[in-house]
């Protein structure tokens, strides 16, 4: 499958990293690069249910696209938020429905290294975004 350029660049970056430790650090660095989420967006409504850590996800709609902002109180999870935002933010509803996040996560080499709790939280974030697109 051919992915949008920013997703392909992310896949290429992860594939360049040889071991899980390097990928893990890259995920954390991605989280550090997220813009701060305003306190007024850290509401119960924006919390993602199913995440062991606190995760907030905010959806902003315009005529064509959905844009997302997010944050977490845990470093690795904040990195996972950054990955999910890179996959989905700025896309049309149709694009969001067609993107296969599980395939992308497999290509990033994350699927086999996430704990069950983190994998469940990641699935909850993806499900929330997919729901926003419908």
Please name the defining characteristics of this protein.
134 residues; alpha+beta; three-stranded antiparallel beta sheet; 6 helices; 53% helix; globular
Distance between the termini: 23 Å
Which strand order spans the largest sheet, edge to edge or round the barrel?
1-2-3
Element-level helix/strand string: HHEEHEHHH
Q: List low-pLDDT spans.
A: none
How does the major sheet shape up?
A: 3 strands, antiparallel
Rough shape?
globular
Oligomeric state, counting identical vs distinct chains:
single chain
Percent helix among the residues?
Answer: 40-55%
Summed over residues and divided by their number, the pLDDT gives a mean of 92
DSSP strand content: 5-15%
Taking all Cα atoms into account, the compactness measure Rg is 14 Å
Structural class: alpha+beta
Any overview of this molecule?
Strands 1-2-3 form a 3-stranded antiparallel β-sheet. Helix 3 (75-88) runs parallel beside helix 6. 53% of the residues lie in helices and 13% in strands. It is globular and about 40 Å long. It has 6 helices and 3 strands, in the order ααββαβααα. The chain has helices spanning 5-16, 20-32, 75-88, 93-98, 101-108, 116-133; strands at 55-61, 65-72, 91-92. The chain is of the alpha+beta class and 134 residues long.
Layout: helices, strands, pairs:
Elements lengths: L4 H12 L3 H13 L22 E7 L3 E8 L2 H14 L2 E2 H6 L2 H8 L7 H18 L1
Helix pairs in contact: 2-3, 3-6
